[in-house]
Predict the structure.
Amino acid sequence: MLQEYLLEMSKTLAVIPARLASSRFPNKPLEEILGIPMIVHCFYRAKYCIGIDDLVVATPDEEIFELCKKLDFEVCMTSDKHERATERAGEVVEIYEKQNKYYENVILLQGDEPQLDPKVVDQLIERTEISKNGIVNLIHCITEKDFNDLNVVKAVINNKNEILNFSRTLIPGNPDKAFRQLGLIGFKTEFLQKFIDLDPSIHEVIESIDMMRFLDNDIKIEAFEVDQPILGVDEKQHIKLVETYLESDKYFLDYKNKFLK
């Protein structure tokens, strides 16, 4: 029985949560960037990742679901009650397990990071596979502009490369020594299940940061610093910045004709 289970288990599932009901930017996943909806950019780019065995969009919205189906993207309809992207990813794992599909690792991507670098995702997958913590969160050195932006989640790291705290406020007090949390997080599947089993925590709710649920319950998160910045689209004004980046991006130049044909 165990042998059959191991044969059925794939290594890595990547989940792209996407929903239309954003308070800061409604309908964001369908916003066009250089003529292509944002969620489509995210899916196409993730397909370049070597370490992903299965890739799925998780959504509570019919419009996103139908677009994915039209493009032959793997898509999973999830509850509209989730407050956190991590909860949505956890529901996908539960749905797949009922279908006898099991994974060692789950990578949480984001539906609002349309210029993610596939090589960075592969680095995260490699790190997650060997992680003793079971949870790996990408971080990046912060700029002073981002340090003063309350949309940007800051992270405080200890000498063991563990995350001590997240906040949208100005921590640790000096932008030259600060990191920003990136939305790419790797989980051993058992730790993603722990997140689902725990109740929402006080600082998770106050800060609107998923990973505070772990920290408030004394569960360690490994920080993994990468050189490549990833621009999340939090507001409509960020679209132009992403378009400027993508115009000369090699992945975009390769996949754009799949959609724009």
Observations:
- Confidence is low (pLDDT under 50) at residues 1-7.
